[in-house]
Structure formats: structure tokens, C-alpha cells
Design brief:
alpha+beta, Serine Threonine Protein Phosphatase 5, Tetratricopeptide repeat, 6-stranded antiparallel β-sheet, 27 helices, elongated, TPR-like_helical_dom_sf
């Protein structure tokens, strides 16, 4: 089961327990919205799936990048495998203050990336301070003659503060007219030279640039974002090449458990036979019979003759405690097997009725067996259970009832029946004999020997 519990470290390095609420993926950025044990709201910030820091929310600015991310990005409600994968891929997540954040951005990111990342924080750091930080980088590039690098920062400022007088002035400066035309025309050079701006275009026009975005995510090794995008593609257009691409990425870059959790979530959102067949196959391989039964409930046509043989073998070889599946799931599996393999009916039902007798009321088992009467016809094992059901409150048949419980290996119930029969008929030897046999089955040799002696003594007196 996917958990939505997160643990990060606060500024004093103390553990901070959070419950994830939802997540947004938006143009290289990921945001997790979470709540603390004190009911305080936090946002966790990531860039290309790398943890940056977290901030406690007092007030979220309107039209902020976070707001746009949750409005226009790919969003996922907790619990969700993407939230789990993002958080667990950053096990040493620690909140850092603003000075430490700036130092981290200076050390690990380009100026353009730093400028873009700073725009994430307008609800937590003064917008003026953020703008000035980006502006200083712009002037540094312009003084150094790096006009294209400077213009890329203008584009960041234009998205961040479009109405600022400086931004308006710089945007219309003729010195940048060739760059402006390149952006307007969306030339191939733009997609090669300004990866952030081009990704904004691709992200907002996925129908046109979806494959181009996929290629870029692969080049950057941004596998989690690629899986998110492929999942969205499959929901929108369930086609073989999309599913094959998703499978390939999952197989190459994620564990089998992680891959299955992603596909299970996807199967809740889209009806696509190859996806169900793939999960069905994986469940069979790993003997997850409960999940096999859930898929069979939705689609019985998933079961091939080979699958049927494997399920039959599992049900025959595994003990009920090893399977550990709900009674409803067990019923689905057994019905599917016994429809084709009538020869297995007596042994399998005997085995599982015996287990059910230890856990469920007789009325529950009686109802559970109803479909088998139709599928299998008359069976001795069902007839024996019906006798238990009919005689369970009849004191005149305690001996017969005990013998039936004994046959189903229900030693405790058998002892109760034989003991009652012995009390009701103290001169009878038969219940003593069965008490001795039952205690022996329980490994209680002294008790077994004692009842055996009593049995022999009454036999002599007869």
C-alpha cells in the first residue's frame, strides 16, 4: 500500500512528520503540499525531482507559480506512487533558510535555472528581493557581453513581473530583436539553446510538442517526469506504442515494486486491456492471488489455459495461511479453476472449507458455497458441510458432528462435540475413542492415553 507519510528535517535537524495531500509537476518543478501533525501547511519544493527546501505557508500569493502549477500542471492526489517516488528519492531532505538556499542555487545551478527556481518562492520571499536578485544576474551578463544569456533572464523576469517598467523596457530593446524573433518564430535554435523557455512551450502545448518533451526528458535522465508524462499520454490516448514506452522506462529505471505501483494506479484511471494483462501476469509471477482475483472480477477473459494451470497449482500447493486472502477473493479464484477442473473440486474445497471453519460463522460459509453448487453440481465435501450446518445445534447428533469436524481437521470443535456426547452418554465407548484420537492429533499424548484407557475399560464392561 502506498503511504502518504513524509519525514523531512527542519532547520534544527529535528524530524518533521508530514502527511502529503497532493503534488503538482510543472515545467521542471515539483511541489508537494503537505500538513504537519500540528495542522500546519507546508510546501516542499523540487527542481527536476531534486529536493530544494520546504516552507511553512502563512499565505499563498494569488497568481503565483505554485498556484499555476496546481491549476495547469500535472496534479496527483495523495496517496499516489509519484508522490512516494519523489519523496523517497530524496531521503536526506532538510529545510534550509533563504541564505542557504541562495548558496545552494549558486553552487549547483546555472544563472537561468537559479532565476527560474527563485520564482517558485514569491509567497515566501519578498517579490522585490527576488526580482532584484534576478536583475543583478542580468546586468552581470550584459556587462560581460553575454547578450543571449542576459535575454534568457529577461524572459524569466517577463513571466515573473510582466508589468514591471524595467521588464517592459528591456523586452522592447532593439539590441535583443534577433533573439526576440527567434522566440516568436519558435525556431529549432530556441529549443536547443533555451531549455527552460522551450520546455514551457512544450509543456503548455503537449499535443504539438509531446514527443519533443519526451525526448528532452530522456536526454536529461528525468525518468520520474517522463513516467508522469507517459502516464498522461496513456490516459489521453491508450495506444500500444505509448504503453510500450512507459513499460520500457519503468523497467530500465525503477524497481519492479515501484513499476507495479505506478501501473496499478494507472489501471484505476484508464481501461486498457494490455495494461490489465500485464498486471495480471505480474501478479501471477509473484503469487499475489488476491490481486489476481480482483482483476478476474473485472475481466474474466484475462485467464488463459496456462494461467489457469498456475492458479490451480498455487491453490493446491499453498496453505490457506500462506495465501492469506479475503474469502471473497478465494471464492472468485476457486470458481474460475473449478469451472474447468472439476477433478480438483473435492480436494480443493475440502482444504479451504476446513480453513474457513476456523475463521467464519457456519452461515457465512453456507452462503459462500452457493455458487459452487451450481458450478460443480453434487459434491461429497459440500454434502458433509451441509450436514455440519444442519446438525450444529442438535444435541442428538454430537458424535456425527464431531466426526465431521474431525474430518475437516477442526480439532477444537471435534473435542467439544465428543466431550458433550460423552457427558450425554457416559456408558458409550465410541466418544472416548474419538476423544483419544483427537487429542493425539493435537499432540497431547497424555490426554490421548487417558481416554484410550477409559475406552478400553468400558469396552471390557460391555
Amino acid at each position: 500500500m502506498i503511504q502518504n507519510q513524509l519525514i523531512i528535517r527542519d532547520e534544527k535537524n529535528n524530524p518533521l512528520k508530514l502527511k502529503a495531500l497532493r503534488m503538482a509537476n510543472y515545467v521542471r518543478a515539483q511541489f508537494i503540499e503537505a500538513i504537519s501533525e500540528k495542522q500546519e501547511l507546508y510546501y516542499l519544493f523540487y527542481y527536476e525531482s531534486e529536493f530544494l527546501t520546504a516552507k511553512k505557508v502563512t499565505k499563498l500569493r494569488r497568481h503565483s507559480l505554485i498556484e499555476r502549477a496546481f491549476k495547469n500542471g500535472l496534479t496527483f492526489q495523495a496517496p499516489h506512487p509519484f508522490i512516494h517516488l519523489l519523496s523517497t528519492s530524496n531521503p536526506s531532505s532538510k529545510i534550509i533558510n533563504n541564505k542557504q538556499l541562495l548558496r545552494k542555487l549558486n553552487q549547483h545551478f546555472s544563472k537561468q535555472e537559479k532565476a527560474y527556481i527563485l520564482t517558485f518562492f514569491e509567497s515566501f520571499i519578498s517579490k522585490k528581493q527576488l526580482f532584484n536578485e534576478i536583475k543583478d544576474m542580468f546586468y552581470e551578463d550584459r556587462r560581460g557581453g553575454q547578450l543571449f544569456s542576459a535575454y534568457r533572464l529577461i524572459r524569466i523576469m517577463k513571466d515573473f513581473a510582466p508589468n514591471h517598467s524595467l521588464v517592459k523596457s528591456l523586452s522592447s530593446d532593439l539590441i535583443y530583436k534577433d533573439f526576440a524573433k527567434m522566440y516568436y518564430d519558435r525556431t529549432e535554435e530556441l529549443f536547443q539553446e533555451d531549455l527552460i523557455e522551450s520546455e514551457k512551450i512544450m509543456f503548455h502545448e503537449l499535443n504539438t510538442y509531446g514527443e519533443k518533451l519526451s525526448n528532452q526528458l530522456e536526454i536529461d535522465h528525468r525518468w520520474l517526469e517522463l513516467v508522469m508524462w507517459r502516464s498522461l499520454q496513456l490516459k489521453a490516448s491508450p495506444e500500444p506504442h505509448v504503453f510500450e514506452s512507459l513499460q520500457f522506462t519503468l523497467k530500465q529505471h525503477f524497481s519492479e515494486h515501484e513499476s507495479i505501483s505506478v501501473l496499478e494506479q494507472l489501471a484505476q484511471d484508464v481501461t486498457y486491456s494490455p495494461l490489465q494483462e500485464h498486471l495480471f501476469s505480474k501478479y501471477l509471477e509473484t503469487n499475489q492471488v488476491d490481486k489476481v482475483s480482483q482483476l478476474l472480477k473485472q475481466n474474466q477473459h484475462l485467464l488463459s489455459p496456462q494461467d489457469l494451470d498456475q492458479i490451480s497449482q498455487t491453490l493446491s500447493e499453498k496453505t490457506p495461511s500462506e495465501l492469506n486472502i479475503p474469502i471473497e477473493s478465494l471464492q472468485i479464484l476457486l470458481i474460475q479453476v473449478l469451472k474447468q477442473r472439476h477433478d480438483l473440486a473435492e480436494n480443493l474445497l475440502h482444504k479451504y472449507i476446513g480453513d474457513l471453519l476456523t475463521k467464519h460463522e457456519l452461515s457465512t460459509i453456507h452462503k459462500w458455497l452457493e455458487p459452487f453448487r451450481e458450478v460443480c453440481g453434487e459434491l461429497k465435501v459440500i454434502e458433509k458441510f451441509d450436514r455440519i450446518y444442519q446438525m450444529s445445534e442438535d444435541l442428538d447428533h454430537m458424535q456425527s458432528l464431531g466426526e465431521l469436524y474431525y474430518e475437516f481437521k477442526q480439532w477444537k470443535q471435534a473435542l467439544e462435540c465428543f466431550s458433550m456426547e460423552s457427558e450425554l452418554k457416559p456408558d458409550e465407548a465410541k466418544p472416548l475413542k474419538w476423544l483419544s484420537k483427537t487429542y493425539l492429533e493435537l499432540g497431547m499424548k497424555d490426554e490421548s492415553d487417558a481416554y484410550q484407557k477409559m475406552y478400553i475399560q468400558i469396552q471390557k464392561q460391555a
